Amino acid sequence: MSDQSTLEHLQTVAESLESGATMQIRYLLNGALPAQDVARLLESSPPKERKLLWELIDHDNQGDVLQYVSEEISIQFMKDMDTERLLAVSEHFDNDDLADILQQLPETLVKEVLASMTAQNRARMESLMSYSEDSAGGLMNTDTITIRPNITIDIVFRFLRRHSELPEMTDSLLVVSRSDRFLGILPLRKLLVADTDTIVRDIMETDCDVIYAHQTATEVAQLFEKMDLVSAPVIDPDSKKLLGRITIDDVVDVIRDEAEHSMLQMAGLDDDEDTFAPIMQTTRRRAVWLGINLITAFIASYVIGLFQNTLDKVVALAILMPIVASMGGIAGSQVLTLVIRGIALNQIGSSNARWLLNREVVVGLINGVLWASVIALLTTVWFGDIKIAYVIAGAIIINLLFAALTGTLLPIALKKLGIDPALAGSVILTTVTDVVGFLSFLGLATLFLL
């Protein structure tokens, strides 16, 4: 469904709710629209309307819809379900997605769900839940087809015919030993053209890309991108046993989530931020970062207060101050964004960080001199005071140099400390460029104008 179609259906739903025409809405939600489109309607509705829409979806269709909405909204709905309904809904989820959701539900409810599963499914789910959500182990799906290396292709075909269908995104069969130790893969492109008397060992591939359970989701996405993979086996790093597999659709979700993560974290918002979350929930999430920003603003104000006498005597400085801080902030943000992107793509390390720092300092110096000259000229025309022009020019050069240094070194340092640069980088950078900008501008003014 296109964005325009979503808005049109939202308008239709709103008008129907207002007029009480629930039959029309029920028709839309239970067959007229695909489950993906119904999920988008739920995500695009305020809490009260969202609850009404959810209640109008037939129980048999709720599982189909639930797998397409965000994790936060899924959890909100599933918390209100009894065990029987939760089990029925969970059948629509892939094992890895269900494991992520169960980890967010109350412990008593999770125990009931696990107790209702078969021993095999319970063991698989507990295995998935033991891994972090953003690791390969948490990302993998245990729905795999495995074969032994010493059987013929004819036996493989007979084995496959006993399955009603293959797992989605199956491009190869996984070859394991009797102890489930991973040995290699048998691509379907080889299987389909092989002679039925051929032994699996003779045509399987042992030199294939594998993923270890402890690897991060980001590393997995980079491997898929680099090697153009459709799926890859996940193995235990110690025992080399096969644990599951990761498919390209999971990797697409990782890439999308990381893009949203970077965008939202730079604004101090949660990864699963719901556009239509309740007022108090949204208020609590944003209040923390507003408080942090207030502290940094007071730091900048304190620096300005140190030069109150200077500002009282030269009023033009108060007019020109925002220019210095703004230029430093923009320059620093450009560098910060570039470096964070480089870190995310694993392009920046100890071998090239110094070169990058030197380049950004030179770029900062050139841009500083260029724009300091322009601003100095405009300041002279505006106020007719060449001394003020020299002061602001010097402050611009100093602040752009510090912006380049901070924008380059800050995300690298935060990464080494285990802090997400996208989350804290912009707040610290703004504080540095504001403080350095005001300090250099007002400090130079105090030295040369008074």
In brief, what are we looking at here?
By secondary structure, the protein is mainly α.
Q: Numbering strands along the chain, what is their spatial order in the largest sheet?
A: 1-2-3
Query: What is the makeup of the main sheet?
Result: 3 strands, mixed
* Topology, number of strands: 6
Computed Rg: 29 Å
Instruction: Indicate the structural class.
Output: mainly alpha
Helix segment tally: 22
General shape: globular
**What fraction, in percent, of the residue positions are helical?**
55-70%
Poorly predicted spans: none
Strand content: 5-15%
Q: How widely separated are the two ends?
A: 66 Å
Write down the secondary-structure element order.
HHHHHHHHHHHEHEEHHEHEEHHHHHHH
Q: How would you state the average pLDDT, rounded?
A: 84
Quaternary state of this entry equals single chain
Domain CBS: 140-203, 204-263
Main location: membrane
Transmembrane segments: 287-308, 314-340, 361-382, 388-410, 422-449
Organism: Marinomonas ostreistagni
Written account of the structure:
Acts as a magnesium transporter. Residues 140-203, 204-263 form the CBS domain. It is found in: Cell membrane; Membrane. This is Magnesium transporter MgtE. InterPro entries: CBS_dom, CBS_dom_sf, Mg_transptr_MgtE_intracell_dom, MgtE_N_sf, MgtE_transporter, SLC41_membr_dom, SLC41_membr_dom_sf. The N and C termini lie far apart (66 Å). The chain has helices at 3-19, 22-32, 35-43, 47-56, 59-66, 71-78, 83-90, 95-102, 107-116, 119-129, 136-139, 153-161, 188-191, 200-203, 217-227, 248-265, 279-305, 308-313, 316-344, 353-383, 386-416, 421-449, and strands spanning 146-147, 172-176, 182-187, 211-212, 231-235, 242-247. α19 (316-344) packs parallel to α21. It is built from 22 helices and six strands. The strands form two sheets. The protein has a three-stranded mixed sheet. 67% of the residues lie in helices and 6% in strands. The longest helix is centred in the last third of the chain and has 31 residues, at 353-383. With 450 residues, the chain is mostly helical.
